[in-house]
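Severity: low
Component: inverse-folding endpoint
Summary: output formatting inconsistent between runs
Steps to reproduce: submit the following structure tokens with default settings.
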């Protein structure tokens, strides 16, 4: 077996194991927005470049729905479609400059330009098309290691990218090794942590890459540069669907949330799995409330793992981050991503 095969088949790993597995490997890095590649993976990318890995960064959105830095830098109040598109192009160009600081060329990026802050809606309304697009990219890139946002990230685009990528990965054979990274919020990530060390040159390279994202540094320089340290933390993600006995897929799943009854009219529940996506108002979902919480009866269409559920409010809010977010219903209960809070 090569180093990646050993890495994939072992139960746990050190940073040395991960770095060794990068030698000549094919990596696919999922970046929901321009700057995620630098903030979360600037050190890993430089290790991979040194190890002569084949690196593809998949840029999902252009980060175009980013109004406050745009208003600040461009001195404008109204932002229309033209201004938003121009801003997205500006951020996409900054990403290339950041990649150059990390040792990558333009050809290492594949850019989808899906709408920023609308990835959950895309999955809900165009799920099959979305997953197939990712499957096509993955089959072309043939990654041995995929690095994606953690499901517990508070940003809805990051968590949606996790779901989309996992649903696409389950169609690959053999499935690649999988690592996750965390950018927003404080919910714990699932999986064993791997702390990747950065030497002095890598530290400075990551710092320069972050500073290349000028539109983001303008209003958050200190916060973004705080992501530069002696290590980067990734999490080794176990994929239960690899060994999941689909004949034992339960027909009911306990949800980790018990929302206040007064909120029920405004709640929406989404279920995403390899065979489709279902969206219900909370009151119309196939739910039963028992002593231990709320059980969801899985539709007959659910035949394979992984199975993800999302709870959200069906109303607009200036707060962009998730309150409940997604959970993996086929993960072990102790490792479920959601925090189970009621309010």
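Observed output (run 2 of 3):
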């Amino acid at each position: 077996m090569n180093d990646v095969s050993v890495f994939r088949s072992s139960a746990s790993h050190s940073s040395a194991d991960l770095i060794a597995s990068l030698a000549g490997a094919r990596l696919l890095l999922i970046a929901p927005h321009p700057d995620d590649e630098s903030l979360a993976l600037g050190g890993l990318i430089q290790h991979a470049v040194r190890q002569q890995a084949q690196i593809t960064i998949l840029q999902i959105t252009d980060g175009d729905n980013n109004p406050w830095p745009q208003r600040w830098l461009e001195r404008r109040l109204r932002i229309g479609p033209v201004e938003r598109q121009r801003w997205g192009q500006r951020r996409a160009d900054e990403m290339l400059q950041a990649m150059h600081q990390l040792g990558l060329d333009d050809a290492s990026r594949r850019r989808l330009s899906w709408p920023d802050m609308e990835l959950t809606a895309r999955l809900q309304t165009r799920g099959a098309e979305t997953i197939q697009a990712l499957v096509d990219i993955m089959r072309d890139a043939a990654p041995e290691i995929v690095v994606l946002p953690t499901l517990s990230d508070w940003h809805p685009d990051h968590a949606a990218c996790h779901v989309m990528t996992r649903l696409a990965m389950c169609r690959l054979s053999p499935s690649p090794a999988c690592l996750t990274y965390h950018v927003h919020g404080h919910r714990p990530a699932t999986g064993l942590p791997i702390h990747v060390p950065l030497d002095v040159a890598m530290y400075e390279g990551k710092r320069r890459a972050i500073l290349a994202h000028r539109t983001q540094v303008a209003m958050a320089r200190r916060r973004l540069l705080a992501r530069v340290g002696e290590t980067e933390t990734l999490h080794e993600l176990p994929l239960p669907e690899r060994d999941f006995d689909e004949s034992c897929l339960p027909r009911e799943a306990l949800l980790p949330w018990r929302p206040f009854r007064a909120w029920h009219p405004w709640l929406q529940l989404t279920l995403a799995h390899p065979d489709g996506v279902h969206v219900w108002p909370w009151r119309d979902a196939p739910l039963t409330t028992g002593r231990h919480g709320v059980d969801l009866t899985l539709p007959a269409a659910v035949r394979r793992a992984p199975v993800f559920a999302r709870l959200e409010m069906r109303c607009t809010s200036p707060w962009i981050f998730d309150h409940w977010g997604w959970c993996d219903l086929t993960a072990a209960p102790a490792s479920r991503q959601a925090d189970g809070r009621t309010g």
